[in-house]
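Lecture notes, continued. The same structure-token format from the folding unit now serves as the input rather than the output. Read the line below as a description of shape only.
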């Protein structure tokens, strides 16, 4: 069971975990031990509330397929247990991040002082450039 918030939890049967061989260079056991974890979670067929499902499926994340399946590959650690824990934590973080509502930006106008500073800077730059021209006798 994976706890997302105080009211939302995921059951173990909803998350599919598969042990695979990790990529990259390794030591003596690199071709023998399946220490990486491949996590798959089907959002559409899960017990998550509809609000969660809509927000997750609206995310522009490469880990979410068109069918609504989240795929996470964890191979950072040397042991299968640590990679399993890492994959579950990353899934929980992804779901929590989908529920965070961004604060709407208020449009503001530049202050009078900032406009004056900008114009003064432009004037100084203009004078500097005009001094680079040909000297007229």
């Amino acid at each position: 069971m994976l706890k997302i918030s105080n009211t939302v939890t995921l059951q173990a049967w909803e998350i599919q975990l598969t042990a695979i061989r990790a990529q990259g260079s390794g030591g003596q056991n690199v071709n023998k031990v399946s220490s990486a974890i491949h996590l798959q979670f089907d959002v559409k067929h899960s017990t998550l509330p509809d609000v969660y499902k809509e927000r997750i499926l609206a995310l522009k994340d490469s880990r979410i397929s068109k069918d609504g399946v989240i795929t996470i590959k964890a191979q950072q650690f040397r042991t299968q247990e640590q990679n399993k824990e890492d994959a579950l934590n990353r899934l929980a973080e992804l779901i929590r991040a989908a529920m965070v509502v961004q604060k709407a930006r208020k449009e503001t106008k530049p202050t009078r002082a900032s406009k004056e500073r900008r114009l003064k800077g432009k004037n100084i730059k203009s004078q500097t450039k005009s001094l680079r021209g040909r000297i007229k006798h």
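Point for the exam: Residues 10 and 129 are 65 Å apart (CA to CA).
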